[in-house]
Amino acid sequence: MALNNTYEARLVQQETAVGAGLQILLLALLGTAIGMGPAGWLTGLAFAIATWAVLSRALHRTRPRSFGPANRVTLGRATLVGAVTALVADSFESSPPVTLFVGLTAVALILDGVDGKVARATGTSTPLGARFDMEVDAFLILVLSVYMSMSLGPWVLLIGAMRYGFVAAARAWTWLNAPLPPSTARKTVAALQGVLLLLAASGLLPYAATFAVVAVALAALVWSFGRDVLWLWRTHRAERAVVTEMLELVAEPVPAS
After folding, report:
1. How far is it, in rounded angstroms, from Cα 73 to Cα 112?
2. Which burial class, exposed, middle or buried, applies to 69 when counting CB atoms under 10 A from its CB (0-12, 13-18, 19+)?
3. CA–CA–CA angle 90, 148, 21 (5° rounding)
């Protein structure tokens, strides 16, 4: 039995290695097609290595019996995000082909709706898979924010940085780690970030319209995060009030008979 578990673990690790290999192959194809510079190459390779290392560590810690079809879709999407990241890094030296940039990003966004459906259809939903999916989403939004900030200004970086800022704040204020209730509005706003940033990056709109589209994306995200933080604070305050009341009742002296 132990040998069988070891064999399965090796298969899982092999799949992550294949993902890193595909990432490097895609970078080689991009480099050949557009003559990508050192910044793009180094950034793309760093992304591939970091993804492989972080995912391998998470798999070693959780020890799933198999990698799962949904995680394969997410890994494929991460490969596309790595390519987009390399193009954005290269854009500091020369603008990437818009069609290629938009095409890779669009496929990555479309696949975002596929991995969850695959997980539910195959009964392979796991906390690791959900976290992997979320991290790939967040990083793609960050990369698109960096790209748009070059033409619109550093304020666009708030879109990509907001989620990471929330995670950092949760280390100081642990009440931010409490689970949130399901929300269609939250999911809609999250999905719109990629769509609106891609529309802005496509170059199809005039500058004023591009500015407005990105501003709407930021406003919607601020509203969504603000609403969730307010809900978490109110819940935390209500729970603290209940605990305080219970402690006061326990500490209240019993009247002598």
Report:
1. 9
2. middle
3. 40
91 neighbors 147 (Cβ within 8 angstroms): yes
* Closest-CA residue to 160 (of 185, 130, 207, 197): 197
Q: Identify whether the C-beta of residue 218 lies closer than 8 Å to the C-beta of residue 152.
A: no
CA distance 99 to 235: 46
Cα–Cα distance, 62 to 65 (Å, whole number): 9
The token pair at 43 is 């950034």
Q: Quick count: other Cβ atoms within 10 Å of Cβ 147?
A: 26
Instruction: Going residue by residue through the chain, which has 257 residues, state the pLDDT in tens, using 9 for 90 and above.
Output: 344 445 456 666 677 778 788 888 888 888 888 888 899 999 999 998 888 888 888 887 887 777 778 888 888 899 999 999 999 999 888 888 889 999 999 999 998 888 878 888 887 788 888 888 899 999 999 999 999 999 999 999 999 999 999 999 999 999 999 999 989 999 999 999 999 999 999 999 999 999 999 999 999 999 999 999 999 999 999 888 887 777 767 766 656 55
- Output the six-digit token pair for 133: 């999916």
Angle value at C-alpha 139, between 28 and 144, nearest 5 degrees: 80
CA distances from 120 to 72, 113, 117, 136, 199 (A): 14, 12, 5, 19, 30
End-to-end CA distance of the chain: 67
C-alpha 114/C-alpha 80 separation (Å) is 14
The radius of gyration of the chain from alpha carbons, rounded to an integer in Å, stands at 22
């193009």: which residue's tokens? 87
Alpha helices in 173-206 (DSSP H): 184-201
- Cβ atoms within 10 Å, residue 235: 15
